[in-house]
Amino acid sequence: MNGRPLARPAGVRNVVKDMPPPSPNRRIAIAGATGLVGRPLFFQLQRRGFRLSILSRDPAAARLLLPGAAEYLSFRPAAREGRWAAAVDGAEAVLMLAGASSFARRSGPDGRREIRESRLVANRGLVTAMADARVPPRLFVTASSVGYYGFLDGLRPSGAPPPVADERTLGGNDEISRDYRQLEGAARAAERYGVRTVVVRTGLVLATEGALPEIAARVRRFLGGIVPPGDQPLPWIHLEDEIGLWLLALDDPRVRGPLNATAPEPRTNREFMQAIARRLRRPLWLPMDGWIVRRWTGEGALLFSHGRSVAPRKALALGYRFRYPTLDGALRALLRRTELSALAPRPAGA
Description:
Elements: E1 27-31, H1 38-47, E2 51-56, H2 59-65, E3 71-74, H3 83-88, E4 93-96, H4 108-132, E5 139-145, E6 164-165, H5 175-188, E7 196-202, E8 204-206, H6 211-220, E9 236-238, H7 239-251, E10 257-261, H8 269-280, H9 289-295, H10 299-305, E11 309-310, H11 313-317, H12 327-334, H13 337-343
Parallel strand pairs: 1-2, 1-4, 2-3, 4-5, 5-7, 6-11, 7-10, 8-9
Helix pairs in contact: 4-5, 8-12, 9-10
């Protein structure tokens, strides 16, 4: 290392640039740092001078993706012991983003079980390490989902506005909600050991990878459309604000318990798809419910087909300023004209 900070991934700014850099002897352990949110979060923390311990199922791959960490440790949360558990002892914070993605290409009960078990085992393993630590970490932040509130769109009276969930709202009654209640209960067991614990309930993260490019690609090819009926809410957040809220949890001791990571501007599925179509200068032709169900199952599909209106009450009350509070602004930043011109159909013979 030459002492200079590594470049951030494209499109991720320093959302807390006014914060003073921490002492370089402070250490953070991150599980799941190689994912969509984990990678830019790693680079933000690295720029701020933290010593980072990366807990990964594949430490060699993590080293290539995330150069410059203090250590790369094999993460086997089902085992009570190991070097990864020692990294939890005395850490300033432990951040848990590990687990199978809700938007992975998995189907049926086995896929949902893999998502549930991978996250649950990771949270339980980390809390067990905290219980065994001589000095427990001061903070534990773990990834959860707006799926905690349940996808209740189909249960509301026809024409009635969807109920808005905030951090005070109780969990739903469907299977996905029960899974997240169990996950959050496992994570918040860390509070027994004096660890300030935050669960980040995230909606659809908009970024230059993940779900948005796949949907935009269909719209570009004139295959885009709403997911019927179209009035179901779609909670979303730009990646930069997702990172900003994780840093808020790290920086502000007032943040405890659930923290909704959704933009303050509510949008329906129809409005979401129309905004993409306007930006790409394409019409919306075909309903996408069949493609959504085939492409994603479980939570990923229900987020589009049913949805839930979720408000970031706590973040706003604590004074967090969203960099991308509106959907149009987020899409303008992510679907740039230069990218569109490069991807637009070329004339015959070009």
